[in-house]
Amino acid sequence: MKHIAFDATPLVGDHISGIGYCEAGLVDAITRLHPELRYRYEYFSLRTPEEKVRRLAPFRKDNIPLKQAACSPLLYRAVSTLLPIPYAAFFGDWADITHFFNYIVPPGVHGKTVVTVHDMVIRAYPETVRFRTRQMLETGLQQSMERADAIVTDSEFSKQEINKYYPGYAHKIHVVPCGVDTERFHPVTDRAEIERVKAAHGIDGDYFLYLGTLEPRKNLERLIHSYALLCQKYPNAPKLVLAGGKGWMYDSIFETVTMLHLENRVMFPSYVPSEELAALYSGALAFLFPSLYEGFGMPPLEAMACGTPVLTSHTASLPEAVGNAAILVNPERLDSIMGGMQILLERPSLRKHMTTLGLQRAAEMTWDSAAETLFAVYESLLLT
Per-residue DSSP letters for 247-261? Predict the structure, then answer.
């Protein structure tokens, strides 16, 4: 019986990002569809190990035990960039394949290794990357792709980007698209529940929604400027709700709202619990995601799964993710973003049509399908 280990680092942090939800979706599906293999989660923990066990609880199943190594993850990462301390010294020789979902493969892993490289933002838009992350990728990404037996990425666009910047690894790359959890993200038709969630976050009336990290790559300053143009034409335009945690270099986002005197029109809700997301998506007039660069872009799919019309960028992987089910705009032109918002505001019949197309698109993008594609990668490694 073959053994597959999953690096659980993206799942045990304070807040789970899209990388963590990508891992969770794939692991849940692959362990359910292929119980003939043995699996486990692996991670480092020195302080408060019980807290990490608690954070992993939503993603655990009976066939995914935990293997915890008593070491600081930050210390191991820092030291292993200078000294090749074997990963196997902590986790042994149990695994035939270990999958690292967050770009970096440490030295000395037993068996075969798979690494997920979600995008090439470090090369395409390095100025938008947090300093610590940029430092990690600049020092470790190429070495990780060299160590890996297989490289997984989220889209054909990202595959082309990796080939452009690192052509020597083209033979290792496999595309495994992301999926959407339609049990977690689905249309909420109970108006009372939608109003309850809106009230909990201080939202009243109609609203456009963005959901994601507040960071430069998401293009929120241009979105706010475009919204200001829309408000000039439509003084009673729906409010703009920018929901998500603060990432980095976010001060200018708030400054833009103040400069344009939109403090009463642009809202920044507090943390939105996972169980409220479907209602928040479902209550929005439309979902706006004019990001500059994405390796895949999960939020537009989540919005579609909730029946919400989507506006997103015509660049990077986003057209690949949304298919024909979204309004596509030029993320660098204010008139293009504003024009898309205007169309959504003026044409309820189009919004209804886009809801239908979006639900169909979300139904096509399942984690089960993605997991079978990933399992084929594992099988090819186990046979060599």
Answer: -SS-HHHHHHHHHTT
